[in-house]
């Protein structure tokens, strides 16, 4: 049976250490690893907090990145398409080599670890990954493991809750310039908190971009 793992990896061993140090209050959230036509791992991440120009500059100068392309600008949140260095690729490959899926990854400027949620097809595959990381001096700290009876599914990988939030946001004019609604108003319509609406929109947008714009991407570095 598939298992979901909640774990963490030190920022210093993974990615964006210098960006997190350079930009106070910045946070990143990402997931849904996508393989391009060149078999390159191409994740997309959301950023929030701090000034966007400062975040962009820090990402471009960060030694763990080769490129940070801005895909979506929601004023207070930004979606980036990332190209990582070989060091980051190595850690990702260790974590995902056992047919695992990265469901979520998040980190804040004051954190020492990336918090991860990963889906493994079996307990055995999780054990292989943990052993592989240990052998290669990567600190994969497993905090919680639970079985998953069924995985949320839908068109483009969007859950029903994410679809409802995106639909309400689109119909209300949240993505227009200037905006015609806000997260509080959307939350009132859906009977959700500001934070819950924000997370559903971000994760839904993440899935949409991953399953549409980035599928089969063959652009050269």
TrEMBL record:
Highest taxon, organism lineage: Archaea
Domain Bacterioopsin transcriptional activator GAF and HTH associated, first and last residues per copy: 19-149
InterPro entries per UniProt: BAT_GAF/HTH-assoc (IPR031803), HTH_bacterioopsin (IPR007050)
Pfam families: BAT, HTH_10
Record's keyword terms, sorted: DNA-binding, Transcription, Transcription regulation
Domain HTH bat-type: start-end pairs: 158-209
An example Gene Ontology molecular-function term: DNA binding
PANTHER family in the cross-refs: DIMETHYL SULFOXIDE REDUCTASE TRANSCRIPTIONAL ACTIVATOR
Protein name: DNA-binding protein
Organism: Halomarina oriensis
Lineage: Archaea, Methanobacteriati, Methanobacteriota, Stenosarchaea group, Halobacteria
């Amino acid at each position: 049976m598939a298992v979901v793992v909640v774990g963490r990896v030190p920022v210093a061993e993974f990615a964006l250490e210098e960006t997190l140090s350079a930009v106070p209050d910045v946070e990143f959230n990402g997931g849904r690893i996508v393989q391009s036509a060149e078999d390159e791992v191409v994740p997309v991440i959301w950023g929030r907090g701090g000034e966007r120009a400062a975040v962009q500059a820090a990402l471009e100068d960060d030694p763990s990145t080769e490129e940070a392309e801005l895909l979506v600008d929601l004023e207070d949140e930004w979606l980036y398409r990332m190209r990582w260095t070989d060091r980051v690729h190595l850690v990702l490959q260790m974590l995902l080599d056992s047919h695992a899926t990265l469901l979520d990854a998040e980190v804040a400027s004051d954190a020492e670890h990336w918090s991860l949620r990963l889906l493994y097809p079996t307990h055995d595959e999780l054990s292989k990954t943990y052993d592989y990381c240990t052998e290669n001096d990567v600190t994969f700290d497993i905090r919680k493991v639970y079985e998953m009876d069924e995985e949320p599914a839908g068109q483009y990988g969007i859950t029903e809750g994410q679809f409802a939030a995106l639909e309400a946001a689109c119909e209300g004019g949240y993505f227009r310039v200037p905006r015609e609604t806000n997260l509080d108003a959307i939350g009132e319509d859906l009977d959700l908190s500001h934070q819950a609406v924000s997370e559903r929109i971000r994760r839904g947008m993440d899935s949409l971009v991953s399953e549409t714009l980035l599928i089969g991407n063959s652009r050269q570095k």
